[in-house]
DNA sequence: CACTCTATCGAACAACGTTCTATATTCTCG
DNA sequence: CGAGAATATAGAACGTTGTTCGATAGAGTG
């Protein structure tokens, strides 16, 4: 059932997951679904944790010497799963009782942070910040293509170029930032953008660990 | 009209904003709203930008010597607005034509980053990462109180303590991280958590700027 | 005065989440 | 073996939602 739900979500987006569509896909009745879940919220929570099962499996292949590297790898696996599933961010780690895999993932991130030797509070904050960043940026980047980009194929470049042109037409005195980044924006890659921000945060985390190791 | 929409959202959450409820609040008819907006999506986009107007105003009061300090202040103002408005994150900066204030806010963050003297790509990535973090963590932290916490008042502490107890009951060998942070989690403050993660990212950004200034 | 533009209103429609009842299948145990 | 409970399925029905549509009234214009 969760496979069917995730399938509908992946193929046609969040609005495609309806009880009637899911029942038709499974060849059953609408009411039957309610035997397994008590609401659509719970269905989405379970679907989210279903995806997290695969994320967990893939992220457990990495075990390096550097905790920061492990964190980067673990975060990127989650990013890959959320990038084209904007709904996942909203239902990730909402209910710990019905979402054991999300909790395991949190634990896994936390164990890497633990190896940095910070205090409990810093450890808690760092692990939560990393996950919050991944979820947030993925939901931001992977938002639906606004209009007709579903029909046209190669439209993404044109869409970005069009937005960049609008920025370039603004007053450079008043909008220096948008002018500076217009070229970058037009040719940017979402994954690069994500990785850069992640590295910023991990650099800050490494710095914090070093400072503490030196006893500051 | 946007005041009424934001009012409904703030008072009773995202599900309270319906065309019928909004029409009743404004003393008008349901169909009239469609004269000003073409869909509920656009209504929420405009409502989001309406909130951003206030965010922009408050964040423009800060102008310090240190760009990083400015970034921290600017980010915290946005956090304050999104913290209790989970819907804002989903509709922030989706359509630049109907959301001028969001674009101005992006420009403002970007101008602070510009002062760090990075290249166009790093500037673009840094500004986007900061905003992505704020939106993501705020949506994560400010998610609705799951159950009955709306009736009871002081229930938040009990809820957190209950979750922490569940973590403490797990096997410490298998869940070292959750055991380490259980106490922190039970007494944590959302804003502290947000600030810590933001400082991690800003520390990393400062480090990147210094490295570039030294010509590495 | 005729006509177009602006603006408002609420009935009607299709789709959705959810509830309910009826029914079939399997399991339990005296 | 067989009656009743537990498990499981199916679909009609209900209330609510976003959206469409035609009717209608005033404002501005030639």
Compose a concise summary of this entry.
The structure is a homodimer of 216-residue chains. Chain A has helices spanning 2-12, 19-26, 30-33, 40-59, 67-83, 86-91, 100-114, 120-141, 155-168, 176-186, 190-213.
**Helix and strand succession of chain A?**
HHHHHHHHHHH
CATH superfamily of the largest domain in chain A: Tetracycline Repressor, domain 2
Largest interface: A-B, 63 and 63 residues
Largest sheet of chain A: none
Number of strands of chain A: 0
CATH topology of the largest domain in chain A, which one? Tetracycline Repressor, domain 2
Q: What's the end-to-end separation of chain A, in Å?
A: 53 Å
By DSSP (H or I, 4+ residues per run), the number of helices of chain A equals 11
Total discrete domains of chain A: 2
Oligomer: homodimer
Question: What would you report as the Rg of chain A, rounded to the nearest angstrom?
Answer: 21 Å
Q: Which spans of chain A have pLDDT < 50 for at least 5 consecutive residues? A: none
CATH class of the largest domain in chain A: Mainly Alpha
- How would you state the average pLDDT of chain A, rounded? 92
Q: How would you sum up the global shape of chain A?
A: flat
What CATH architecture of the largest domain in chain A would you give? Orthogonal Bundle
Percent in strands of chain A: under 5%
Helix/strand/pairing category of chain A: mainly alpha
- Helicity of chain A, in percent? over 70%
Topology, element by element:
Two copies of one chain form a homodimer.
Chain A: H1 2-12, H2 19-26, H3 30-33, H4 40-59, H5 67-83, H6 86-91, H7 100-114, H8 120-141, H9 155-168, H10 176-186, H11 190-213
The structure holds a DNA duplex (30 and 30 nucleotides).
């Amino acid at each position: 059932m969760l496979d069917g739900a995730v399938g509908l979500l992946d193929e046609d987006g969040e609005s495609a997951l309806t009880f009637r569509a899911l029942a038709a896909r499974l060849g059953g009745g609408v009411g039957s679904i309610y035997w397994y879940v008590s609401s659509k919220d719970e269905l989405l929570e379970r679907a989210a944790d279903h995806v997290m099962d695969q994320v967990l499996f893939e992220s457990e292949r990495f075990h390096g010497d550097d905790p920061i590297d492990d964190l980067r790898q673990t975060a990127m696996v989650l990013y890959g799963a959320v990038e084209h599933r904007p709904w996942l961010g909203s239902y990730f780690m909402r209910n710990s009782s019905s979402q054991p895999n999300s909790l395991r993932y949190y634990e896994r991130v936390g164990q890497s942070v633990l190896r940095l030797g910070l205090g409990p509070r810093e450890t808690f904050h760092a692990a939560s910040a990393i996950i919050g960043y991944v979820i947030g940026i993925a939901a931001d980047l992977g938002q639906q293509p606004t209009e007709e980009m579903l029909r046209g194929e190669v439209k993404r470049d044109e869409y970005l170029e069009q937005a960049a042109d609008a920025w370039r037409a603004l007053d450079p005195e008043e909008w220096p930032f948008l002018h500076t980044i217009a070229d970058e924006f037009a040719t940017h890659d979402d994954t690069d953008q994500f990785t850069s921000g992640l590295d910023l945060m991990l650099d800050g985390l490494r710095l914090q660990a070093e400072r503490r190791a030196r006893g500051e």
